[in-house]
Amino acid sequence: MGGRIKQETKGDYSMVVSTNLGGDKTNWFVKKSVNNKLEKSGDKWLRTVNIVYKYENPDGEYAPFVKQFRDWVRVYAPIGSEFVSVDGSEDGTMTDQESNRVWYSAFVTAQPGDTKEVTFKYYIPSNLVGEKEYNLYLQKQAGVNGEKYTVSYGAKTVDVELVNFKEVTIRN
Prior knowledge:
Radius of gyration: 16 Å
Helix content: under 10%
Oligomer: single chain
Strand order of the largest sheet: 6-7-4-1-9-12
Shape: globular
């Protein structure tokens, strides 16, 4: 795929894209995990994407890289998704469309030793969820090593080490 945004998917879609604004390689020391949850909210499907950043404190030869981590993070979702909220952003949010997807953004900073969270909530189009089955296409950002993801739907949770892309299917 070469970093292109996947166009056709079966069901829901998500990609988390981070941009290290410092350009100083602090992202080498930040471990990121992404928790996805889908739940019914009235007659709509609410998707929650919680991103946890843990900035490990490097020492020795890596000590010169100890600086503030600054990330402009975007969550890509299917067209037709409806933004609800973002918590943990230090600068509000923006929303836009790109490559037949909608995205929501947040700005996060962290110092060595910090753990920070940012949580996005949005409704996805109801036609993306089956009666007893949920399909989610997770796309990994190009150039990023594997990251830990969880996907929850109903009473079931699936853990994923995202090293490329993953189609997750959960049946209730």
